[in-house]
Amino acid sequence: MVAVQLGRSDFHHEQVEGHRTGTVASVHSWELVTAVDGPGTRLTYFLSGCLLRCQYCHNPDTWKIRDGALTPIGDVLARIRRYRGVFAATGGGLTLSGGEPLMQPAFVARVFAECRQLGVHTTLDTSGYLGTSASNELLDDTDLVLLDVKSGLPDTYRAVTGRELAPTIAFGDRLHARGTNVWVRFVLVPGLTDAVDNVDAVAEIVARWPNVSRVEVLPFHQMGEDKWNRLAISYPLHGVQPPDAVLLERVREQFRAHGLTTF
């Protein structure tokens, strides 16, 4: 079977059933990448659907779950098996990203369970906003979580994403209690997320979680603006420049000052 693009009525029926059973997923795209999305060479699937509306999102075409290609789990597992040799040679594995993969938790759980049987390393790339959707069984089969902590102050988080910070903190606390390995990601946007008190607030939150093995400060870029324009969505960060080296180092030092290994 191959991925198929469905009409809206057909999609709704298949998507609801697929969500319930985890036998299909709405997939935006996939790629094979190195040194991104976790250790080693990763097969990364970008699942469609996200409740956040981050101002700096570079994949706004993943927001609507119905815009993805309905893809049978068998197709995904076949591709994972095809690259097992690459994963073994590089210490890589599978990453499920998005969008927000926890919009489709049954699928994530089934794929990760199969990866556990295959001996393939699994990574979940999530904002944590839908952390309550991740069952204990799903997390049992998750080797690494890439947790996007988008801001540390509730008002700033709301301005950045349109949603609340508390669910991300609650999910981080749950991962800490379980001892799950976590890499935290923080996107540095001049004029939006770079305030000293906001960065300190993120660092204070993350420092509570000794299971966090690294923090990645990701510099904002403008590569997503063309997608916003093509979708006729007003882009709020037009003209904003990426952070310079001085700002990047200041922010990284703020995390390091809290005892966090930071890149």
What does this structure look like?
This protein has 263 residues and is of the alpha/beta class. 38% of the residues lie in helices and 21% in strands. The chain contains 10 helices and 8 strands. The chain has helices spanning 8-21, 73-82, 84-90, 105-118, 136-140, 154-161, 166-178, 196-207, 225-230, 245-256; strands at residues 24-34, 41-47, 69-72, 93-98, 121-126, 144-148, 181-188, 212-219. Strands 3-1-2-4-5-6-7-8 form an 8-stranded mixed β-sheet. The model has no long low-confidence stretch (mean pLDDT 94).
Mean pLDDT: 94
End-to-end Cα distance, whole Å, is 41 Å
Strand order in the sheet with the most strands: 3-1-2-4-5-6-7-8
Query: What is the overall shape?
Result: globular
How much of the sequence lies in strands comes to: 15-25%
Low-confidence stretches: none
Instruction: Give the H and E element order.
Output: HEEEHHEHEHEHHEHEHH
Structural class: alpha/beta
- State the major sheet: 8 strands, mixed
Query: What's the total count of β strands?
Result: 8
Global Rg: 18 Å
Q: Considering DSSP H and I runs of 4 or more, what fraction of the residues is helical?
A: 25-40%
The helix count comes to 10
